[in-house]
Amino acid sequence: MSRERLTELFAECRAEGRAALMPYMTVGLPSPEESVQLFVAMAEAGADGFEVGIPYADPLMDGPTIQAAGERALAAGSGVEVGLDLLGQIVTQTGKPCVVMTYVNPILRMGIEVFADRVAGAGASGVIVADLPVDEADVFIEAFEARGIGLVLFVAPTTTEQRLSRVLKADPPFVYGVAELGVTGVRTTASSHIPSLVSRVRRHSEVPVVAGVGISTPDQARAAASDADGVIVGSALVRGVLLANDVGEAEELLRIAIGDLARAVRPPR
Amino acid sequence: MPALEQLEVEFTKAWADPGFHQELDDLLRDFVGRPTPVYRAARLSDRLGIDLYLKREDLAHTGAHKINNTMGQALLTKRMGKRRVIAETGAGQHGVATATACALLGQECVVYMGEKDIERQALNVHRMRMLGTEVRPVTSGAGTLKDAVSAAMRDWVSSVDGTHYIIGSVVGPHPFPWMVRELQKVIGEELLEQMDGSSPHRPVPDVIVACVGGGSNAMGVFYPYAGSGVDLVGVEAAGFGLESGHHGASLVAGSPGVIHGSMTYLLQDDQGQILEAHSISAGLDYPGVGPEHSYFKDHGMVRYVSITDEEAVEAVHLLASIEGIIPALESAHALAWITKEAKSLEGKTVVLNLSGRGDKDVQQIVDAE
Ligand SMILES: Cc1ncc(COP(=O)(O)O)c(C=O)c1O
Known about the structure:
The structure holds two protein chains of two kinds. Helix content of chain A is 49%, strand content 13%. Chain A is α/β, with parallel strands linked by helices. Chain B starts with a helix and ends with a helix. Chain A binds chain B through residues 56-58, 60-61, 63-64, 67, 71, 74, 79-81, 103-110, 131, 133, 158-160, 163, 180-183, and chain B through 1-3, 5, 140-141, 146, 150, 153-154, 157-158, 160, 256-261, 266, 268, 270-275. The structure holds pyridoxal-5'-phosphate.
């Protein structure tokens, strides 16, 4: 059951008194052939798991960096099919739990069951669907659960208590705590929402809360890690890959950034 | 999203409040100029062998039906205690209508508009700025309506506390398609009264034809007639031709999926990537369509057809030269279908919903010739 790999990861991190570092990366950058090695480099530098982003032409919840990454990856030949093929390689070569990040439409197009088969077949642990509200999620959850993978659900500062209880009842492998309202992207300030989000969830449940959106610097990651079970950093890493001249440089930038972030999610010695 | 739930509650309450209707109706009458007239296009009727009437939305203030929706939503914004408004625009008509309502009500206004549309609808960009609105260029994707909607939605997820998003058509997540339909159905309600069969000058229509981009003018005129037996025809953009793959005909040539928070027909590839639409008319250049039109299509309540760029431009010239009315390129799609189908429509009473006037398109048409 691949969902359990996430459960194990969070248990392990809790035992070590730290948060898990779960970077986001668009799959297929800088090219489909060179993509997997970036994930391997991040794993070696201290990433605990990944959000593997399927490039999408109209990513509503993403800011300019991940939009640009999606366009670049699609132009380089990546896409839903290629992305899911690479996902299997990422899981095997990094040995880390992976969660697929995508949008509703490509899943519907493929068929929910077929998509779930592909994700489970690749050995991934879960799926994040950026534009899927919990009220519409039942058929997805059913298909995923039947294959031992989980649907991650969002909780934001604006989420009502009623909705929160629906999210928790759906039993996600972890809750994606939206640290900053708005789309993904680099923010200059540290989020103040995480402590209250985590404590709101904790009042009802022990489900892991992973903080994401707007976390890019080690300081922001450190702040989030003191409350959350995991930290997602996306745009800041993707930006490096987009700026790099070649895959070697991209790898180097990622190793440096992940090294800093991996220290930040651990308590000071 | 809690914001959508809140909006649904607020609009439900406002729409049940006679005070809200009073304020809106007064503005629609005195500021917008409603009811808009129905005009019998005598020369064109003779030429085509049909009895052709134009529902003159082009005569509404700012030159299109879009203002019916923006007046209502701007009043709702005030009622919700919000001070800032955002909107997307394609042809710029919705942007101008939003800018106008915001100027009138003293609201701050930001309009997202694709780069390509800023270029081809320059007149409307100047109008928005003159009305005190900030026009923000959108460079992602093809720089057209889809990208402008996405940009506005991205703004709204972080600004929702003090900002209302005035969406420009019957698209987007619930409650938008419903709310915009409610605000636009005034077109069809007026038409029911104006053409009630009470005299030979006011025959009941056999056919009503409207262009479909997101679908708001069509929904506005169709909705009160749905199920009445009147033949309803929605005209989409065939762009360079359906077989070219460059068009905006989501209902005619698309397949079901999810775009901008609604489940509807859309243009997509075999992996579910949303495709770029193409139409000479910026207002029809959108790969999705309002979900209620998808319902109408699936239930056979409306016929959906398409018209190419070339046919639309021809129709602009036709109406200008023999009726003295320059229609918007969007509306010209509906007229082009009528002229093309004149034979099968022979002897029938046909209403064209003339959704807007064509001043904004003159430069583009002249440049292309
Ligand atoms: C004059 C006119 N007609 C039609 C449309 C298309 O929109 P809808 O299908 O929502 O009426 C537009 C959009 O910009 C427009 O300006």
